[in-house]
Structure formats: C-alpha cells, structure tokens
Automatic annotation (TrEMBL):
<dbReference type="InterPro" id="IPR014718">
    <property type="entry name" value="GH-type_carb-bd"/>
</dbReference>
<keyword id="KW-0456">Lyase</keyword>
<dbReference type="GO" id="GO:0005975">
    <property type="term" value="P:carbohydrate metabolic process"/>
</dbReference>
<dbReference type="InterPro" id="IPR013784">
    <property type="entry name" value="Carb-bd-like_fold"/>
</dbReference>
<dbReference type="Pfam" id="PF14686">
    <property type="entry name" value="fn3_3"/>
</dbReference>
<dbReference type="InterPro" id="IPR011013">
    <property type="entry name" value="Gal_mutarotase_sf_dom"/>
</dbReference>
<dbReference type="InterPro" id="IPR029411">
    <property type="entry name" value="RG-lyase_III"/>
</dbReference>
<feature type="domain" description="Rhamnogalacturonan lyase">
    <location>
        <begin position="287"/>
        <end position="360"/>
    </location>
</feature>
<dbReference type="InterPro" id="IPR010325">
    <property type="entry name" value="Rhamnogal_lyase"/>
</dbReference>
<comment type="similarity">
    <text>Belongs to the polysaccharide lyase 4 family.</text>
</comment>
<dbReference type="InterPro" id="IPR029413">
    <property type="entry name" value="RG-lyase_II"/>
</dbReference>
<feature type="region of interest" description="Disordered">
    <location>
        <begin position="1"/>
        <end position="21"/>
    </location>
</feature>
<dbReference type="GO" id="GO:0005576">
    <property type="term" value="C:extracellular region"/>
</dbReference>
<dbReference type="GO" id="GO:0030246">
    <property type="term" value="F:carbohydrate binding"/>
</dbReference>
<dbReference type="Pfam" id="PF06045">
    <property type="entry name" value="Rhamnogal_lyase"/>
</dbReference>
<keyword id="KW-0732">Signal</keyword>
<dbReference type="InterPro" id="IPR051850">
    <property type="entry name" value="Polysacch_Lyase_4"/>
</dbReference>
C-alpha cells in the first residue's frame, strides 16, 4: 500500500484482523496483530489502524496498491480537493487493509458535528463530487514493481494539469472556460517586528463561502479553492467555480486568520486582480514568549516513543511518528503525578511540551 513517498508498506491481509489472529484495541478500527498470515509480518508486533494512513486534503491526490506478482497497480487519483469539506488541512482517510481505497468527500473525522452538512426547511442543495480517476498500471515481471508508484504520481500530475476535466457531461460540473481566476499579493505588516511590509512567504490563500475569519475550517456544503503564495507573497487561484466567496489566508509564522473585507463574485471567464493585500496579525503588544511555531502543525513539539507493544514500524523515526497508536496514554505515563510545567526561557518545546493536549 502506498499513500505517499514515505508511507508505504506491505499490509496485513483481511484475515489477519479476524478473531484469533488479532487483539482488539481501544476502538474497533485498531487491532494488534498476534498471528498474521502474511509471512512478511511474522514475528512482528504490529498495530493495524486505518487512521494511521490519514492525509491532509491538500496532499491527498494519489494513493492505492501494488501487487508484486504480477506487477499491477491500482490507484485513486483526485486532482483537485475543491469539493472536499473543511479546507486544505482537514484530515481524511485514504487506503487501508482490505485492500481498501477510499474516496472521502465529506467526513466528520477529527472534527465532529461541525463538518456534517445540515439542511433545514426544504433548503435546496446540490454539489458535484469528483470526478475521481481510478488508474490501473502494470509492468513486466522483471521490472521493479515499485516503479508503479512513480508512474501513478506522473499520472496524478497529468490529472492536476488537466483539471477541470473536459469530459463530464453534467451541466453542474463547470469546465475551465466557465470558471474564473483570482490573483494578487499578500503582505504582512507586524509593526512590533518591522515597520516595513513583509511578503507573506508560503501563505495559504483560498476562496471559500462567505463567513467569519477561519470559518472555512468548518465549511462543508460548497466548494473551496486554495493555493500557496510564493516567496514574494504572490498568489494565483485558478479555475474557480462561479459563485460568491470570501478570500481567506493564513501565514506560517504569524498567528491569526486573514479575511478580505469584501465578498468576491466569480463570473465565467473573469480574471480578478486583487493587487496588494495587507494582513496585520492580532497584537496587543510585543511578543514576550511563545511555545512552538504558529504554523498549524505540532511537528516541532515532543512526540514520545510508543509503547513497544503497540507499534507500527513504518512510523519509527518518521515525520509522521505522531500517528503511532496509543500515544495519548503516554502522557499520563510520562507525567504520572502532575501535569507538565513549562518554564519560559529554560524549557525546550521540542523536548518539554507534549505534542497533543490530552486528558488523563
């Protein structure tokens, strides 16, 4: 199974999750394999948990499976996440034991009821999910079967460049000529750092239905269109469906959410140049201290080693090691008598601040 360049492994068989071959864990989706039929997993304590293979919407463009004999690949390619709910950082399931490949469009996972669409009083609603491309590839017996993943990535990039697809017959799926485009430049003005405008390097900039700043994270009925600004703050959001939007953004390294103060009406064939936009992060004074980096990731904080009994070897020394099963229990084990204390100027958030805020 391949979800990304660094998340690939031989997976258990469905039978390995059957009674007698596994031990149920804290929730039904997670089991400890104790007697797997897969010879590659023999002698390995291994947690199987489909949530370990979740992925941000922004990165969820290709995932699937390789059969090594004969070398055949089965891939799901989703060139755009415009129809997924919750914005670019929303986590969604991908592939898992089955072999199962999921196309997740709407999900309350990791978020709760805020991301469940609600309809009242005969409210009309329609939306196009997809198209999603199922791609099959193969190679000769003598070839390295893992090349099939590289080929699937090439096909994914072809799909991204071809979006929106031209073949759907539905009038509800807008083709490229029916959509609009927005471009501009985002700058940051934080007078406690500098009196000069700073380019919003790497900012996430998007169009989503009108709402409050940050409301795109809970939006689940309509479409969202996101891009990243370059190192000078310039951005271009292309192939936007016709509708009315707010423009939102956040800038790695700065707290808060940006929202443009007027709605943007996208019409067919429109090219809207926003010019220079300025984000002023919320401030009441200079920064006295901070723990971590305001980048909407907990990667810089302390992620403990898992309990040796509940381990997935894929995530040992891995950037996504936070996905190991059962890390919530490690907090109480590490701090049995009282909660951790962080001493400003002395403590190191990479060692002294737990990556997740968990209950005992």
């Amino acid at each position: 199974m391949a979800v990304s360049d660094n998340r690939q492994r031989y997976m258990p068989l469905p039978d390995d999750r059957s009674s007698g071959r596994c031990q149920p864990l804290a929730y039904p989706e997670a089991v400890l394999l104790v007697d797997p039929k897969m010879k590659d997993l023999a002698g390995e304590l291994y947690v199987d948990d489909k949530y370990q293979y979740s992925c941000d919407n922004k990165d969820n463009k290709v995932h699937g499976w390789i059969c090594t004999n004969p070398p055949v690949g089965f891939w799901q390619i989703t060139p755009s996440d415009e129809f997924r709910s919750g914005g670019p950082l929303k986590q969604n399931l991908t592939s898992h034991v089955g072999p199962t490949t999921l196309a997740m469009f709407l999900s309350s996972h990791y978020a709760g009821q805020d991301l469940v669409p609600k309809f009242r009083g005969g409210e009309p609603w329609k939306k196009v999910f997809g198209p999603v491309f199922i791609y099959l590839n193969s190679s000769t017996i003598k070839d390295d079967p893992f090349w099939l993943w590289e080929d699937a990535k090439i096909q994914m990039m072809t799909g991204v460049q071809s979006w929106p697809y031209s073949f759907p017959a539905s009038e509800d799926f807008q083709k490229s000529g029916q959509r609009g485009n927005v471009s501009g430049r985002l700058l940051v003005l934080d007078r406690y750092i500098s009196e000069e405008y700073t380019p919003a390097n790497g900012a996430y900039v998007g169009l989503a239905p009108p709402g409050d700043a940050g409301s795109w994270q809970r939006e689940c009925k309509d479409y969202q269109f996101w891009t990243r600004a370059d190192d000078r703050g310039y951005f271009s959001i292309n192939n936007v469906c016709t509708s009315t939007y707010n423009l939102y953004a956040w800038v790695p390294g700065f707290i808060g959410d940006y929202q443009y103060d007027a709605v943007i009406n996208i019409t067919s064939g429109s090219f809207i140049e926003m010019g220079d936009l300025v984000y002023e992060p919320p401030r009441d004074g200079p920064t006295l201290w901070e723990i971590g980096i305001p980048d909407r990731s907990a990667a810089e904080f302390y992620v403990p080693d898992p309990d040796p009994k509940y381990i997935n070897k894929l995530f040992i020394n891995h950037p996504d090691r936070f996905r190991q099963y059962g890390l919530w229990n490690r907090y109480a084990e590490l701090y049995p008598d009282e909660d951790l204390v962080y001493i400003v100027g002395v403590s190191d958030y990479a060692k002294d601040w737990f990556f997740a805020q968990v209950p005992r």
